[in-house]
Write a structure and sequence with these properties.
Layout: H1 8-15, H2 18-29, E1 38-40, E2 44-45, E3 55-56, E4 59-63, E5 68-74, H3 81-94, E6 110-116, E7 130-137, E8 142-154, H4 168-178, H5 192-200, H6 208-262, H7 270-280
Parallel strand pairs: 5-6, 6-8
Antiparallel strand pairs: 1-4, 2-3, 4-5, 7-8
Length: 281
């Protein structure tokens, strides 16, 4: 059995390995000459003012080539997720500002990679599991600024079978999505880097303390998902009940109007009747 990489424990265990992280980033970003070295950086990002909000990244690293990269894992959707990614990217850029009045605003490339277990924009035609977003000239569809990139890796949109895997990122997406269900390593993943990945992910190879930490992380993730599912079901039930009440109310109004007509009474709503009487007086 292997860990679920979408848990906090699984994410940190896998991408806490520098070799695995570099291979993953090279597959996602296609940086010229590749990433051959990186350094893990503090994940807490403060603002310029003392009362600014603190941003806590899941993983932050810098490469030997000077790139700054944040990797985020998100299993539960919320309506402002795109705004959150833009905020995180801005904090990442903001963090490069140098003190002093002589700074020339020269910025290193920054990347925000989001691995998400939901669709960012449902039904958006032509979108694949891998999306790279940059600044561009809208009218001519040409890049405006290349040194700031948001990447979305949407697991629900990855639908390839093990026999259909081609690129490095295909292999990584398959591993991230199905690792916790795999009992036997597919032939397509029997390569050095993925043998290393799955060896690290074996629950049986972890210490008792690590296993306890993993199961706690798995439980926390499931509690969050179940709570959100319960809330969604409750909202759906309330909406259905409200629709039923509205339908019943409309039926009662129709029946009441018909009864008043049969009795020769006014079919005007009571409020309209009162207004009519007031005008006569």
């Amino acid at each position: 059995m292997y860990i679920d990489p979408l848990t906090d424990f699984g994410f940190k265990r896998i991408f806490g390995d520098k070799v695995l992280l570099m291979d993953f980033l090279n597959g996602v970003l296609n940086i010229k000459d590749g990433i051959t070295d990186l350094t893990y950086a503090p994940t807490i990002r403060t603002g310029l003012a003392k009362d600014d909000r603190i941003s806590i990244f899941d993983l932050y690293c810098t490469t030997g080539g000077g790139e700054h990269i944040v990797v985020e894992m998100q299993t539960v959707s919320h309506k402002n997720y795109k705004q959150r990614t833009v905020h995180y990217l801005s904090r990442l850029i903001n963090g490069q500002a140098q003190k002093g009045k002589d700074w020339d605003f020269s910025l290193p490339p920054v990347y925000l990679i989001n691995i998400v277990d939901f669709e960012i924009d449902k039904g958006l035609e032509g979108k694949t599991f891998l999306s790279r977003i940059k600044f561009m000239y809208e009218e001519i569809h040409k890049p405006y600024y290349d040194n700031a990139t948001i990447v979305y890796l949407e697991l629900p949109l990855f639908r390839k079978k093990a026999s259909e895997l081609e690129t490095n990122i295909d292999h990584w997406m398959y591993a991230l999505k199905f690792m916790h269900r795999i009992t036997r390593l597919p032939k397509a993943l029997q390569k050095d880097i993925f043998l290393k990945l799955f060896e690290l992910a074996k629950i049986a190879k972890m210490t008792k303390r690590q296993q306890n930490a993993y199961y706690k992380s798995l439980e926390d993730m499931n509690v969050i998902k179940n709570t959100i599912d319960d809330l969604k079901n409750t909202i759906t039930t309330l909406q259905s009940s409200n629709a039923t009440l509205q339908s019943s109310n409309a039926t009662l109004q129709t029946e009441n109007a018909e009864l008043r007509r049969m009795l020769g009474l006014s079919t005007q709503p009571y409020a309209a009747q009162a207004q009519s009487i007031t005008k006569r007086w």
